[in-house]
Fold these 4 entries.
Entry 1:
Amino acid sequence: MTPSLHLWLIPILPLIGAAINGFFGRRLSRQTVSAVALTFCGAAFLMGLYVAARFPSLELPHAEYLGHWIRSGNFMVNFEFYLDQLTLVMLLVVTGVGFLIHIYSVGYMWEEGGFYRFFSYLNLFMFFMLTLVLAGNYLQMFIGWEGVGLASYLLIGFWFTKDSAASAGKKAFIVNRIGDFGFLIALFLLIKHFGSLNFSQLFSSIAQQPAETAGVGLLTSIGLLLMVGAAGKSAQIPLYVWLPDAMEGPTPVSALIHAATMVTAGVYMVARSHVIFGHAPNALTVVAIIGTLTALFAATIGIAQTDIKKVLAYSTVSQLGYMFMACGVAAYSAGIFHLMTHAFFKGLLFLAAGSVIHAVGGEQDMRKMGGLRQYIPWTFMTMTAATFAIAGFPPFAGFFSKDEILARAYEANPAYWFIGVTTAFITSFYMFRLWFMTFFGDYRGREAAEHGHAPAHGHGHGGHGDPHESPMIMLVPLMILAVLSVIGGWVGIGGRFEHFLSPVFGEGATAVATEALSRSTEITLMVISVVAAVLGFYLAYVLYLKRPELPQKIADSLGGLYQAVVNKYYVDEIYGDLFVKPLVDGSTRILWHGVDQGVIDAAINDTADGARHVSDSARQMQSGNVRSYAGWVAVGAAVIIAYMIWMGVR
Amino acid sequence: MNPTLPVGADYVRILPEIVLSIFGMAIMVLDPLVDEKKSQQLLGGLGLIGTLAGLVSTWIMAQSPGFAFWNMVQVDGFSVFFHVLVIAIALVLILTSYEYMAVQQLRAGEYYGLILFGLVGMCLMSSAVELVLIFISLEISSISTYILAGFRRRSATSSESSLKYFLLGSFATAFFLYGVAMMFGATGSTNIDAISAALNSGKVPLLAYVAMALMFVGLGFKVAAAPFHIWTPDVYEGAPAPVVGFMSTAPKAAAFAVLLRIIFEANAPGRFWLIWLSAVLSMTLGNVAALVQDNVKRLLAYSSIAHAGYILVAFAAKPELGAPAVMFYTAAYAAMNVGAFAVVSHLANENERYVTLENYAGLGRSSPILAGTLTIFLISLIGIPITGGFFAKFYVFSAALQSNLVWLTIIGVINSAIGAYYYLKIIVVMYMREAREEVPVLPIPLALRAALALTLAATVYLGVVPGRMLTFVQQSAQQLLQAEHTSAREQVGNAAVPRATQ
């Protein structure tokens, strides 16, 4: 029996912070608000470190039971927290990166209205995210799952005076609902067939079942439904559309929620459910295919974006695709490894992009940047580290994790590997495109300002001359993350990270890895992915630094294809025409004007003449209606009676 | 066995009904005697005490479970649950009406009396196990609600609402009564236990099917299930806002109680596709039509149709899973919907001027408390965790899936995703739109604060620690379903059948 670590404190701490700022923040000074937010978030991080320190002495998996929550018949759900190696990694990433982003936000949001509201939401998000990560059963996980969606919705719409922000928040919420319901149905199926949602009970009873190799059986359906949920939260095809729009939120939010933590919840959930997927190889294949396609698809869109945050958003979608690809080939630890390094470098990229946006007075269009490296050297340096990390240059963090995924994908199916490497090349290209456009060449912001361009961004710094470096409070988190982006991947050398996670995912997966690939194949693959990264760099160098007139020519010669990419393959429009419009039109024209007011009246008026006397007394009101309503009731009743008679005589 | 005179225990088993009637009559008698200025406070206060006394007497009643008045009334966990539920809803309604009536400059008078009389009907509906008594209590409840719907006498829409409700409602109850008569013809009894016994022994006569259909029409109308929902938007739009909160929950809960008895206890024949289709239609029509509404009351009316659909999903499930899910849902829905309407009533202001979506713009800033509470109710209506609405949906869909109703569950789940949109629309408008026109927000009086606090507490309680409530509804449902097996058999031989054939 291991002693209690009071794991429940970890999510509760930020909740207290959220409550204090939410209820009293209006009356507190900015200093106090930020102190409260940072204290409680930092305390959660310290708790995480404490758990890590105690970790070697624990009997794993370590579960802490707090009391029963629902007990009905033999179905029981408890308040319980669950700690194993996977949880620990997630816990440290979420609290650590989360804390850094909290610090950064103090500087970034200092001049914004609703300062207390922002930090209250941010802490609330931490509460739900930690609930999700530490949950000991699926229901508790689902609470966190929905909660982070809600917090994300609040934060995307933070600048609610902007219409685009409000509608982006709504879009994120609705799309996530679709995914959540996949998740929910999966939970119902688990309750129905296994009578439990508790991780340890559930997984041990599933482990005894035979794997479903053919067709779509129960576990495959559950796996697929879980993947629907994961695709919603982690922005995978076909539910990825909300993430790029979510960039309407403040940049620290994009860094925390839409890059480092929340969007990776889907990956975490799939990894957590690895026992289910392990028994449903067909579902796992679907995960791999979705991940691989998303990685490529989103990367190609990233090429043609000009908004710095949109590039990063599509890049996030693409990198999440890598993580699902890893899970899909049962290389869960590689997926989680990439999740971790991605949290470092993508969190950093967003924060640095925020610093850039801050420097140029709210401008997000990269065509109006350029040459910024002289003005904001610290931002430039940190962003460089992150760019090299995501592009996969050794010895930066991204190299190790991406390489691990690609090697494991190659074992499973070289096609995954091929698409993965292609994506790595494209990734390197669009990231260096961003890097060159932003930091090299000449600053193009001034002429734009002189042409009376109003900053599109809600950030109120407009109308100043030269770009300026951000304050220290924003730079320090950047530097820490930059260090992590460089060295963060080293924990994976020699399979150490994988070994650490092996008690969770089983030794089997590790054993396969060491056997399957010969040393020479492994090195060949590594060289190829480095070459892909270098090619991407070179291409971006040629196109955006050496011969900047070329991109336009290429775009012109590509014509329609280029237009399709710029317009994100028209997916939003297609969804709009396919799902949204018919629903709204249908409900307006047919159901409301039609059924409610038109059709029924028309249809009933002929048949219900006999019922006219009913409404004689009500001549002064819209007399047609009552009559037609009564007619409607009569028709319904007739149908039901007819049906029941048929049932009776059958 | 000859009918004997009722004994003391019989009266204890209808004590809440007696107490509520006395208070109702007291209000009616006092009304002309008190000064009009004071009447609001005095009569409202009396109504409030009446509901509290009703709750206390329900507790007393719960101490002596069993049959009363020659097996016409049955006190068990099931009826106690619905007694508490409808009385609690009325309590919140009275707390909300206090201010509303003053702002609308309506005479208090019989308003509070009618609420209590309506309650008597609804309470009796949940404990009656005899179809004629059920019909009478249904009428008591309905007639009070018809009048309450038209209580804004100066408003044409309110009168229209009342008249429509009355005409269509009478039409529908006629169906119910006709069904009762046919059921009597088919089984020789109007006692639910006896009917259950008759229907479950050998071939079910055709007449019983027809009777079932007719009763379903009547009750389907009362719970606003498609295709008998058509009256709902018009009536809800016109009726006074607090009354709508009441109408959409209390009489519905009582009607669901009756449906539970008839469908599950009497094990109604041939019901499956009927309920299946009605559930699908209600959910879909309600949600899709709500998408384009811009009057908040009308929007919530369509939403209530959709929620009736979710509840019907549970009716299609296995009885032992469906019945508790229905009970939990009615309670959770009552908490969140009454709460939402309390906010709507407060904002409506004089003559219910501000009830369109547009009027809610900027509420997040002008009144953070109201916007915040309404947001929580809406989140619960969407079905997001840590609110009662989530667990309500969770149990319903989980019951459906465990009964192998895969398609019904999927349709329900898709529907609640569609539903999220229009509730969210209200939240977006409140927080993310600037007010175009100045909408005055009156200070929130104490009574309304209490009403909001109660509904909010219930919504969150059911969402955070639903365990107790769930255990309770499961036990009561158990009692309800066991009645089918045990008492029904006993009844056949003695009291019920001879009495009914007299």
Note: The beta strands of chain B are 66-68, 73-75.
Entry 2:
Amino acid sequence: MPVLEVKNISKRFVEEGNEVLALEGVNFTVNDDEFVCLVGPSGCGKSTMLRIISGLETPSGGEVIFEDKPITSPTPKISMVFQLFGLLPWKTAQENVEIPLEVIGVPKAKRVEKAHEYLRQVKLEGSENVYPHDLSGGMKQRVGIARALALNPEILLMDEPFSSLDELTARALRDLVLGIWRKRGENPNSIIMVSHNVEEAVYMADRVLVFSPRPGRIIGEVNVDIPRPRFDHRRDQQYFETVDGVMELLKNGKGRV
Amino acid sequence: MKGYVLKVVAGLALILSLAYLIGAYSPYAEMRNLPAYTVSTVTRITVTLVLSVLWGVSFGILAATNRVAGYVVTPVIDLLQSIPILGYFPLVIGFLFTWGAFGVEVSVIVLLFTSMAWAVFFGVVAAVRAIPANVIEASRSFGITGWKYTRHIILPAIAPALVAGANLAWSDGWFFMIAAEYIEYKGAIVSPPSGGIGVLLARSAYFYRDMGMAVQLLVYVTVLVVVINSLSWHRLMNRAGAGTFKPLLQIGLSGIGKMGAREASGWFSLEHIQVPKAFSAFWQRLEDYTRRQKMLTAVIAAVIIAVFLIGELHHLPSASTVAQAFAQPPGEEFGGIHWLILMTMGRLTIAYVISLAVAIGLGVLAAEHKLAAAIINPVYDIGQGVPILALFPAIYLGLGSVFGSQRLALEVTCIVMLVLDMIWYMFVNVSSAVKNIPSEIREVGSLFGFKGMKRITHIVIPSILPAIVTGSILSWGTGWNTVIFSEYLPSTGPGVPDVYIPGLGSLLDKAGYVYGNTILLVVIVTIIGAIVLGMEALIWRPLLRRFEKYKVEV
């Protein structure tokens, strides 16, 4: 059952006086309990697509349907993890997680408790009162993930969440996110992630959508049937074949432009 | 190109016809000189600007790239920048009396230089320091060194900062034009032989006390500045990308040189007042020195001590001349100096708080609402170019009729002047900081639904705190400059007494302008310098360091 429908989205914006078409006729759906990954060459508009879903940007044409209504502004039910973490430097880890809760009116005692709980989930107990300045990149992104999860979102958006981390940290965080998502009966229900790392996409997603270079269109879709947890299958033939399949689509996409 | 030529012609025609009309309809014969005097003032400021750029670029690059120079040059320039324009008076007198008419012209340029040069220097230093390490390493790996390095790496990298700094210097020049072109010395007035708009402005305001005339000239200067800005600076700033550059934000950090600042504030920090710490820090560093470095340090110290001793014996004024200076007027007022300091500080504090509140309000409004920006920004552009010193007598006369008492009128005038002066630095820092809030932080704000006051208190204000501190440093700096002119309204003709309110500024005026008591002038300037540096060490630098963490690392 689809929880989110992207219908014929296009996005134009003006860059140095020239009109640029970033996205053109993008259609896809995201199902209940599904992990979808958008991959494509840099500048193809996949991050813009994510921002349109989050309500941060408005499309030039088309609409994104969530709970039977088009998305027009950000909602706590759709939360986001940023590439550069997006933490407020003047708030501690704890306060950074608390603050979106404060905005939606959660009482003080409750939000302190929740922030603690989610910081524990991302294994940051003991660093609650540290400022982002004094956290490592991996720890910052853990705070970013805890902050997004604390809102108990239906859909979690992730914009290249691991691309500014070193590979070892990134691996640990990928499994952490997958672990949280796999917990039955708890949000987030579905995850949409933007990535330019094909191995990462295949490792994490149920479905990989491949974008063409600008203007971004979906030029292919790969279903990933590898059983979970995929850590046990990361050396399987099937894993490498799927990665090659996505790579092939990316290459063809480039050839067509 | 054709359109641009047309614009230049139209601009010139507008200025010339305005100058002609003002001159033709004025009751004072000297106003006929307005077109010629305009050329003279514009040339003067341009010459000073060229000198400032040449000096700023060469010393700025030197101070930012050379460690030794950085240690010496930056603190010295920081100190020089803190000295008000009048503090350079003793220097100027040398030219005034020895070189005749040419000497006066040189003096005016020297005075202008002392208020224009800093913006360029600090802009350049900050920009050179901001060149990313990877760019430096890459160019090293390709063997780009020496002049090639300067030409291909440093100069392009500092271009936006340079243009922005030069533009700031240019505005400063117009601002201090009156103070520089209308020098009062021992009761007589010295003006450059080639004339200037500042001369006419000062004459109509101070001598004729004709506010109508002064306002006409002010409007004229405003039009002139706006036309020149739109013809040159706007194009230049756009081309260099200087609009997106924020040199002001970084000035504070480049102050006394990176290491020096931290240590200096350590010496003064309130928690542990320990003067000997300065020495212990020095001894600690000395331990890391190589033998050759230790030798070098010893030699430099020996030379400094020797020079000092020789200077003490031969050139510095002897104890008896100093005592004599204190015995002459206005030396007798020196007894109550602590009250004078307190009163002037009080005026500055009131004006600062007002400017802070208004600038934050307007700056945030201008950055958050397009419509508000469309109104506030042009007003700012025009306002910053108006030489408010010329407004001084006008505001005083206006307020004098409102308040019965002369003293109260001048008191309020002084604070109004200070606010008008300090607010620009706060505003430009605040609004550029609001504009430069990183997009991710903005997105976080909208994604999590921060609105209204929550957005301002949680997102906007914290991200501009560093800029507020830098703006405060600059505001106080310029405030000290202005307080000197706004505590004292000199006599405008026979029978009209001087009006002043007691304070450090009016005492300085008396020492400098009225009695020509140079030694006392130097003493007062030293006190002001000490207050400025003390505030920087005790208040601003600790705050800057604290807010450094608030910077978003991108």
Note: Chain B touches chain A at residues 440-441, 443-444, 446-450, 454, 458-459, 462-463, 465, 549-554 (CB under 8 Å).
Entry 3:
Amino acid sequence: MSDDLTRLSASALAARLAAREVSSVEATSAHLDRIAEVDGGIHAFLHVAGEAALKRASEIDQLRADGHDVGPLGGVPVAIKDVLCTSDMPSTAASKILEGWIPPYDATVVARLRSANLVPIGKTNMDEFAMGSSTEYSAYGPTRNPWDHDRIPGGSGGGSAAAVAAFEAPFALGSDTGGSIRQPASVTGTVGVKPTYGGVSRYGAIALASSLDQVGPVSRTVLDAALLHDVIGGHDPRDSTSLDELWPSFADAARAGAENLSLSGLRIGVVKQFSGDGFQAGVTQRFTEALGILERAGAEIVEVSAPNFEYAIAAYYLILPAEASSNLAKFDSVRFGLRVTPEGGGTVEQVMAASREAGFGPEVKRRIILGTYALSAGYYDAYYGSAQKVRTLIQRDFDAAFEKVDLLVSPSAPTTAFRFGEKTDDPLSMYLNDITTIPANLAGVPGMGLPIGLAPEDGLPVGLQVMAPAREDARLYRFGATLEALLEDTWGHPLLDLLPAQPTLQARTEPEGGAL
Amino acid sequence: MSDFSREQVQHLAGLARIALTPDEIDHLATELGTIVDNVRKVSEVATADVPATSHPIPLHNVLRADVVGDVLTNEQALAGAPDAADGRFRVSAILGEEQ
């Protein structure tokens, strides 16, 4: 077994911690050292917990030494997307308007990490307020894709995906409003899950679009995602949209899937609309090969048409800006965040406008203005109202599809990682990048992205997205673990074993400093 | 192509409380036109017989017991404020001179 603790999956690391072969302090130090070594190049982190993480790790080691049950993941480090409130670390959503802000409370998912004795090691970079598909809209500079530093790591959760891909953290939390967990997973060769809407609490997640946002796990293996989902999921009375029901163990589902590799009797639908023009050849090739593997394992593959998916992006870019323009009204320079007073003073309204001008980046302004327009009198029915109707039609497409099949699959993203700057001048082309992932958010159904190989033309990771009916997240984990095992049998190793060595560049983040 | 005038963008920015620069207004006038042209296609299928969906998973009223919960203290609530005095948020004048 490798002596490098950062190369272990979270579950393997947890096993060695439980066996007392390694301590949490050793595991945490190994990851902090890795961050110090490579994050200057990757810039996955906006804040590194440093001493605080080591202190927590030592406490957990002590608990274990004293004979306490520290739980299945006790002592394992975890990274947290900067959109989630942490009472001991800055929480900026990668925006200047929240620079240095330390919230007075923890998000429910963060509180659950702490209760499960996980060790938060830092906050990960993202597009500002989760608006973007590349992390190029982070106010603190982009994250680089560990597979190729000239390329984007996806977004908005590029920091979490890159941190996990580059072995800076065994797993991480992300959030997914239109693909912000699944698309970064696709372009970094990692696993990411957007749970059923309401399956994971949004309390303390800085809201982008409340009817679309979901927090979920980011990891290198399907089992690790399931273990993390088991920790963060379940009803939270502080989130009124949280589903009040009991969930099965997702880790059990993943273990069952890895145990029994037969897919006979499983009906898998391929979304017809997610193919053809706009899909890179190598993406299509790897996807087709994956379908072959599934078929040989006994699955029945059928083509499914979802005619209204074509309207998903249009509906999304009305609903999201509308909800965002309302959610981001809270950044008013009164209760928290940046305050900029215009020269010579001004009324509270002028101070507010100056603060928002200085504190928000270009994409955030674009979406707030677009949302304000879509909600304004005279346009509401034509835009926001119509978009909500499209949402109904997309749900009906999913309902019809799930009458015929158990799961739906597609490429996670139309292309592999693109180069920096390729799409920033054209907001629309950036938006089109999320074509495959947005429908699941509009319908509230769960989706998982997992790696299926490297595209032959550029050697970059390709992902497969699998979607299940609402509340059937366990189905994703069972299937995902089976496909992962079948692929690794073919390759002879996990995909991330092929990750190039990372250049050593001192991290720019101070261990105990603010967000940069 | 949808045209957004500078005045229209300026008006929206006022509603959204963002003091855009003239340069930003020029850019947004062009960009918004392109985006709106593309999102307008929702109306092709959003016919009168289709009900709207506001929320992906149907929910009913969510109630809780009418008791004081675990809430922030005054100090916690003010901890991140740009300015505070006497246990309250402090802001500049609410009304301008002309008001």
Note: The helical segments of chain B are 6-15, 22-39, 74-78.
Entry 4:
Amino acid sequence: MKDYIFKRILLTIPTIFGLTVIVFLLVRLLPGDVIDAMSGGEVAIDEGRRKMIMDRLGLNDPIIVQYGNWLKDIFSGDLGVSLRNAQPLREVFLRALPVTLEIGFISAFIACIFGIPLGIISATKPNTLIDVFVRLFGLIGLSFPNFWLATLLLLFTSLHFNWIPGLTYVPLWENPIGNLKQMILPSVILSFQLMAITMRMTRATMLEELKQDYIRTARAKGLSMKIVVNKHAMKNAMIPILTIASVQLGYLLSGSVIIEQIFGLPGIGWFFLQGLLDRDYPVVQIMALFMVCVFVFVNLLTDIAYAYLDPRIKYDMEQ
Amino acid sequence: MKHCKKIISSILAISFVVIFSSEIVAKNPKYGGEVVWGIAAEPTSLAPFGILLGAAHIGKQLGYDSLVEYDRNSNIQPALATHWENPDERTWIFHLRKGVKFHDGSNFSAEDVIYSLTHMRDPMALDASAASVDGFMPPIESFEAIDDYTIKIVTPKPDATLLGWFAWSRWSIITSKDFYKKFTPSKQINGTGPFKLVEYIPNDRVVYEKNKNFWKSDQPYVDKITLKIIPDEATRIAAVRSGAVHGSRVSSADIIRPLENNPNIQIISGVTAQTRVFQISVKGDGKPWNDRRVRQAMSMAVDRKDLANKVFGGKATLTGPVPDSWGVYGLSQNELRQNIYLQHNPDMAKKLLASAGYPEGFEISFMLPTNQQYEAIGAVVQAHLAKVGIKANLDKRENAQFGAAYGDGSYEMFVNAQGFRLDPTGKLNHWGAPSKAPQKYWYDYPNGWNDEKLKVMFDKAVSTFDVMVRSNLIKEIQRRVIEEATFVYLVNPERLDILSVKIKNWYTDFVDFNQPLRTVWLD
């Protein structure tokens, strides 16, 4: 088991390294640069001045030098500075991180605590009224884009209750109640899709497991349905659920790009988008690298969880 | 002597305006409270100098002043300079206000103006770490402090636009000496304005508190202002409706129809100088734009009334290069309505195209910024042009892509907004003193376009101090530009603000941005 985990961790190193190259190059392939973004079709900047600015910002250095400087900034923990306003990115990143992590965790939590039980209920009572309702809910969750739902809910609450979630971000550790009031609506909206996917996947895999011979044997032994589901079927059904849920967890981050904008929350997603529009390469690189790392580490944790849930994986590795 | 008389008459005219306008004082203002204002874009930086387009100005305009300022009627008023004089046509003497303090408590004097002038001319010299470039500043030959409270500025040629530059205070900020050494320019403010910066949290909020030492002793009225950054317009409107913010700007009259009968909300609209305009580039053999008839046909193909109704909910007016609301310099609505080149006349447009050798029309790439409003303009105008045979293929580009194409001239035609400038002549500089990009893709090309008469008229308008003579010149240039259809002017949409009824003393600032926040109070 230890070897398996160690090997999986080792594999993440070249993965992340490769991704730094991709992130670094991709952002530079976008047409236009920070100067074009600033001029925005209103002011034309002549070549001499453009060269001077690019020199000063280090954007005329050979690409390998720029990449090396970026890696140096990352390893020093400094993360570089914004091209637009010279703000230290470490400060910007550390301020934005809790916002995005909080929305992500609350959303994942809501998705799991509702998605998995609803899927089990639906699977254990197939083709009943409750199953129909749960499936319908799943379909709605999958079909409605979260930005549309967010706008609609804001319209509804402002129109009928003269209320919208607090717009000025309050950190959790400063005012937990105020923070949760602010975070709950965006998190619920962001969780809808994941909840629907988790629910549908739980239902499908549970239905599959409940048809297996070992379930029939367990039932024949006289075990209650509750024990059969929780002790036997659930553990086997969890592997595909975990796979889907973990992949989707990464997508929560991309969803948060829009949700943060709609609710005015200063998180990673908003900075990423702003950086992209401004062609502020260091901002985009660091925010994209963070998202990439989240994907990699979530997958790593999923693989480790597999080994725990499915002894065959451990066995294969040992072989 | 003749010139000096003209200058004196101009100064008298301005002084009259000053005296007249200063009579308009706020009635029964109330003091105290906090105003929360929703803004669409992140200020990015609060650095006083250099071009950081868009919201950056909103972040700093509450904290800084310049030598002069615009009042609510767009007249130039004294600010950090109490008065000024022109001993000759190239020399400006500004007498500075005494007893003014910066937010850090230091005294304002001529050396601060010298420091600021030095760096507004070359912002890159100050801050190499962040991208910023110089902008619209008129050429200045020299400047010096005559004493602690008197500044002398000499321009290379007679230049009537200099006062407008200082009144356009978001570009001509006066900060304290050595500001860039003592402060972090992107995150701090040290000005003489009505509000002191408390905190700036990127992508979240900018918070200011009242400057108790503000040189207008009765202002500001509110204790605190928070600019809340809310990029999504639907959220901003919901926030105003729920009372979470006191007000915000909105993009279209159609969006706020449901708020019209809301007793808690007031809608204030008025014109600014955000003219929507087609710009074209001349490439290759110069076709089709080098033929005046083609450009005129395009102008006549556009149904401006339809455009105003469909995109701006009817809240947009006809415009030439200088909006009609800009003092005595714009062409009147009546004159614009009667101008045949601004009238919707598809039959004439077809005839003009046929006579220019395009009886079947032609195909053109039409670049737009990716923005709901411009995309709507593109769709409406595309249909208008199609009726006369011009097939405009929409090419939507986000800001940086748009800026890149504008810079290198790799477009055939685009639509955008031309915002406020330091002076009405700033709206005409494409025809007199173009920046490099239009010069390269419009004037210099072998098959490009040139009009020496227009350039002469422009130079004269810049150097003429007499208001009425300038006005006539500027109007004449506009008539010629509209007839030549060198750019095709579409409409000038109104600015729309939705506000809580508690907000008093708000007005539509012709100069744009949120200058009225400096003088609002809460009921």
Note: The first strand of chain B starts at residue 34 and ends at 39.
